[in-house]
Amino acid sequence: MLERLRVLTLNIWNRQGPWEARLPLIQRELATLEPDLVGLQEVLHHDSEPVDQALEIARGAGLSYHVAFASAWHIGGGLQFGNAVLSRFPIVDARSFPLPGEPGEETRGLLYASCDAPCGRVPVFVTHLDWQLNRGWIRERQVASIVEKVRELAPVGEGFPPILMGDFNAEADSDEIRWLRGYTSRLGKNVYFADCFAAAGDGTPGFTYARSNRFAARAREPNRRIDYVFVRGPDRQLRGEPLTARLACTVPTGEVFPSDHYGVYAEIQAAPRPL
User: Fold this and answer.
1) What phi and psi values does residue 234 have, to the nearest 5 degrees?
2) Nearest by Cα to 86 from 105, 117, 58
3) What pLDDT is attached to residue 274?
4) Is 3.60.10.10 the CATH number for 4-269?
5) What are the backbone dihedrals phi and psi of residue 253, each rounded to the nearest 5 degrees, phi first?
6) 10-residue stretch averages of pLDDT, the chain, 275 residues long
7) Torsion angle, alpha carbons of 224, 227, 231, 234, to 10
8) Dihedrals φ, ψ of 123, to 5°?
9) What is the distance between the alpha carbons of residues 99 and 194, in angstroms, rounded to a whole number?
10) Pair 94, 51: CB distance under 8 Å
């Protein structure tokens, strides 16, 4: 029986910066952490040309991964920008859903993948929300849409607790994240997802978009924790309990960091336990 799931989320910053130098650093981190499930954001994929960043990362990590990609934004000419899941377990179902937004803006999406793990079918959701600092009202609509899809595809009390991860572009005290964490209600509704870093982090602030990263520093934004691994748990068998969490992909080679974001690595209880 699989005792715990190892999960990693990372915004890979598409091909910006020195991608050829960044790619092996991401692959090195995967080889070190050996995550069972990986959520990637800002992934580029082309319909006909050999451009598939999720496959590039998976093939060079030295691990056997199944890959699912979901487009969030059709850039043009067959080039797509979206989210991906890498899974060490077979992906038996994968679907893509658009998220609410404003006309003329970059579109955002949600990727759902059902992964056939030894602990049962694990519902995995990967997303990337609107990035603009003044667009919390759009992110609120986006998380509400995500929660409805999670309810539909992973009903409460049925199966393994769903894992939701990605770049939410919102700090932990923002309305959209407070709602996900059960601290406030929205339109008379409450939800609860455990924030793995808040529940089981290492005591550091956990900034994932940080000035210590030279690629992020150029944006002149404050240090922020905006990337998350959430799980709707634990359930009645204590599956889905966050056990540990920390930052990942933080170590540069020379002046090259793996991405402009740091990742979040978490371990989640997978095997049933007695109360």
Assistant:
1) -80, 160
2) 58
3) 83
4) yes
5) -110, 110
6) 95 97 97 98 89 93 93 92 98 98 90 97 98 89 97 95 98 96 86 97 97 97 97 94 98 98 98 88
7) -40
8) -80, 120
9) 22
10) no
Angle between helices 53-60 and 19-33 (to 10 degrees): 50
Rounded to an integer, what distance in angstroms lies between the CA atom of residue 263 and that of residue 231? 16
Q: Are 37 and 23 in contact (CB under 8 A)?
A: no
Per-residue pLDDT at 42: 98
pTM above 0.85, yes or no: yes
Cβ contacts of 20-24, under 8 Å, gap ≥ 24: 21/253, 21/256, 22/256, 22/257, 22/258, 22/259, 23/56, 23/57, 23/60, 24/60
Torsion of CA 232, 38, 144, 150, to 10 degrees: -50
Which phi-psi region, left, alpha or beta, contains residue 234 (left: φ > 0; alpha: ψ -120 to 50)?
Answer: beta
Backbone CA torsion sign across 113, 216, 227, 128: negative
The residues pairing with 256 across neighbouring beta strands, listed in sequence order, are 253
Contact 227, 9 (CB under 8 A): yes
Give the DSSP per-residue string, 254-270.
TTB-S-SS-EEEEEEE-
Please give the DSSP secondary-structure letter assigned to residue 186. B
**How far, in whole angstroms, is CA 57 from its chain's centroid?**
15
Token pair 């634990």 is at which residue?
234
pLDDT score recorded for residue 135: 86
**Tokens 């929300």 identify what position?**
129
